[in-house]
Amino acid sequence: MEKMIEVLNLRKTFGPARSLLRRSGKRRQVEAVAGASFDVGTNEIVSIVGESGSGKTTLGRLMVRLLDPTSGEVRFDGKNVFGMNKTEMIRFRRNVQMILQDPYDSLNPLFSIFASVSKPLNIFEKHLSRREKEEMVAEHLESMGLKPAEQFMHKLPGELSGGQRQRVSIARAMMLKPKFIIADEPVSMLDVSLRAEMLNRMKKLSREGGTSFLFITHDISSAKFMGDRMLIFFRGRIVEQGKTADVTERPKHPYTKVLIDSVPVPDPERGASFLNIDDAGGSSDESYSTSGCRFASRCRFVMDRCRRAEPPMFDVGEEHWASCFLYG
Amino acid sequence: MDLLEVSKLNIRYRTKDRTIHAVRDLSISIKRGEVVGLVGESGCGKSTFGMSLLRLLPVSTDISAKKMMFNAGDGMQAGGIDILELSEKELRRLRWKHISVIFQGSMNSLNPVARIGSQFADAMFWHGFDDETIKNSISSHLELVHLDDSIRKSYPHELSGGMKQRVAIAMALVCSPELVIADEPTTALDVVVQRRILKLLMDTKEKLNLSIIFITHDISLLASIADRVAVMYAGSIVEIGDVRTLFRSPLHPYTKGLMSTIPRVDERQSELVEIHGSPPDLSGSIRGCPFAPRCGIATELCAVEMPQLRVVEGRHMVSCHNVEVQDGKND
Amino acid sequence: MNIQTVSKQQSPVSFLARRLIRPLVPLTHSRKFILGASIVMFFVALGLLGRLIVPFGPLAQSGAPWSPPSARHILGTNYLGQDVFSWFVIGTATSLKVGFFVALFSSSIGISVGLTAGYLGKYTDDVLMRFVDMLLVIPAFPLLVILSAYLPPTNTSTILILSLLSWPFMSRVVRSQVLTLKERGYVAVSKLSGAGNLSVMFKDIFPNMAPIIFINMIFLVIGAIIAQAGLAFFGLGNVNSINWGTMLYWAQVEDAAVQSAWWWILPPGLAIGVLGMGLNMLANGIAETTLEMRMG
Amino acid sequence: MISKRYLLRRLTNMAVIAYGAITLNFFLPRIIPGNPVMANLFGGGGGQIGNPVVVRRLTQEFGLNNPNLLYQYYRYLVELVHGNLGISFYYYPQSVVSVIVQRLPWTLFLAGSGTILAALLGIPLGIFLAWRKGTLPDSLISSAGMLISSIPYFWIGIVLLIFFAVDITIFPVAHAVSQGVTYSSVFAYLGDVLYHAVLPISTLVIALMPGYALQMRNTMITVMHEDYILTAFAKGLPNHVIKNRYAARNAILPVTTHVGIALGYVVGGALMVEYLFAYPGLGYTLFSAIQSEDYPLMQGIFLIISLCVIFANFIVDMIYTLIDPRVSLT
Question: Under DSSP, is residue B134 helix (H, G, I), strand (E, B) or coil?
Fold first, then answer.
């Protein structure tokens, strides 16, 4: 498969603000992304699953260059995004878009829906007349289920519900028919009854429009529904990756197993056993090791070597890798 | 006698320019030692109902019910007490001692400038426990949630999210209440932590023979913890029944929708089942079934007549015109 | 059902209405805002119409010295037999002018410093904010006194030094707003839509802090009027200019308190208080309304 | 407890600001262009302004005849380290420092007791108002508070003077102690001091209290929306416990910071009040220094007042860290 976007050994460290006059209170440096490498192919949906604080949002923001990395590269069409000149950057912005988590935060409260959605047109399609822009905006809003579009275009975001705002955000991201979209927890703040529709729509948009998706989520179930492939992220590192079916049905990394076992199953017969799964290796819920394998302190299969060195990616199946010494 | 009996509860919020009818004709009763799951989407009135049991609603709220009886055992009036009739002073005695809460986002429910121990202690002190009992109870309750006793000297900001959640659970139990309202207690947590907290809550419940009202938006959670499940929509219960019955044979279209709309990790789905539309505006009066505009099987009757909660079989009740029930008897 | 009719071609007037007037509509629901605005408008009107409504020239000797309020002199006369009401009305304009210009100049400085510090960050931010911290801690009044003593006693000097010393708080506020708003989702979205840094700054970030800037400008107006009165009281600045501060200065110099000439002392002080209350209400009204709008 | 690292950081912070004030004090008279007084005194001209003997000594000690600004700065710092701020023109032959040392305690007494009393009265008032948010007493008192907090300090003083010292003469019009009296005991002296301080301190308290009360009220109303307050109600705690131990205890933190920031204003107010009541503190001295164009004294007063306020801010900072458990750790 042709590579749409390629991430090479990407690192991002948030440190104490180093400055002449003031010292930040926190001394410890936090390695939000600790050397991630993967790629997303043309017309492919890749899901990233990680708990809060795992660095998955930072990863997404690095990939669209809202942040600059400490080291590493993101390549789009073979070119390093962080070394792009102005014209290349314009082309990148046109082709790579992002959908954010919080629908209440992602639209400027002072701008009408039309102004927000048409913004990319004002910058990349200057030649269009206002009428043409209105038609395009209307078309995109309606394709997201905001019908009739005229009713929404001149409203302010404050007059819309969360679900409607998220539709607007997706319409905006799709405006220029980008080749690649990163969706960062796009449904986690929406009501349950809205989620299914949004996930279906995004999946359909991707399949029909040939757009590649990176779907970032904490919920392995929706990651499974959306993605062709899946990456499991733990504390800044990819611990397992492979085809969605392989990872969810034959998980290899102990963390992935715990994660899958912890998803509540809507079945009372299996419910009781769900609570009684023994995963206890570590003492605290949120602890992680700072040297060696980061999951070591929580892992029930922990070995001496896990604490000494960081495990590399081991091949555990067809296009399936896990970063765990159990397989090395 | 059931621990809690609520009948025809109505709650209205008055705001500057409109009145929101948040809970509509809600009836439910809860047995001793029973875990009732209350599931619904944001704005369906589930939290409002929870808070109403402690009368912890804003001043500008109208609350009325045919019956709202709490039948605690010893120390309380024989024949139960009517929660709506209580004076300020009696309410204070009811709160925490008999009904306590684990809050939604309990991360913020701890006073940031007081030590954990003193936050336990003041809850107990004002309910008349003596110093010795207070001291022992704090230790035993911290142990109950697998926390070290030294935590009593810590401030909330020194604990992790999961630890604070445990503290919130322990604190809710420290006065040995009969009923605990758990309002989305795991929503802010990661799945792994969530499962451990749920396990903890259930173990404690067994030990102390608690009744729990577990409020959540995630119906699949309830499969493993609830004895009974009530589904709320637009301020009313649309279906209620034993957990097995409800998950095996849900009858209300909304319940069915909630169950099949969730992505599954243990199944392959090519497309998710959608529930179209959005919940009605609760500031107006609703004609007919509130779910009718979103319902796939709605008939003309649904648009004009509000269905009543009817018994299907045993404790299984549903409010839908299009569900065949054994007898047409109203609740 | 509320169906909006949409004209395909918007006129510039309706564009202005949307962008400028519409966000202001909720303010009219705030009782505090309306009351505060009425008080402020009253004083502004008094200042603008001053020359037209005063019965006497403020410097003309129009009655006996120290006369208490009467039909002819509704606020009595001062030690020279000048009409206090005329002084008061004419003084309103000068006091408002000082307040207005100081708010304008110092917020220009404050906004520029705040935007620079917040946007550039790093060392620029460190150095600027350390300087701002220092100015915030150092007591302003003695500094004002010294600067006034060195500068020629004119209203312009007073406006100048007040502007030079009043901006630090504004710059703090603007900086922290920039830091908060920079992290907002719609700023990220704007960048993703291809907007450049300057466009993000002035189209997305700046308009969203307009209410807070405006509220702080209101506080600057109050502060400047009070500070000017304080300087005048010390005999600094132009004591021959007619304003609320110099009214109190001359009342003090001529021992109006000993004469129990309350009609000379009460109006300027109360006026500052009432105007201050009006401005405060205006600010509170804006703050509460924007907060309500944010919360939905 | 406060960690050493944190203490060190706050101390450094204070030192940096103090150094800034010292440097500002040096540059102030030198950066204002075209001022004839400055040209005379700091340009090495010598002559018309001030006592010629004094000018000559100042010129010598502070290197004023050397056109090199850096050298002048160096001399300024050296003399400052030796506690020399120059000589007063007006109080010649007293040095600026000796004049200030006599007057400073009176200012500290006024400003200090004014701040403390206003805070002690204003904060409980704020708690009272917040608890009754939206009621008639709240709206009335809050509006009155906004009105009073916008009125200049000295105007309040004048009104008090008219009422309590002129119309009904129960308090003295001026001075810190009675003139030409010998005291039978220390207590008699202290009593006289307090008697003279009633009106000036009342002026400060009336002027300051509304600010503290409103600040406390508004912060507490914000705090009342926090989850832990709801929890406190759910726990069935008595109202006074929720009000004091939960709401007020948390609201007092930002108010403490506000008290620190407001110190500069308080001192400014105290200066004006001193002048009004002919109280022998730095404010009154500053006024006479302006009248007699005593520039060294003016500069000295500015510097000392600034250093006092900077130090007081540090103290408030330390108090804050003691009452907020979240700070001491960082």
Answer: helix
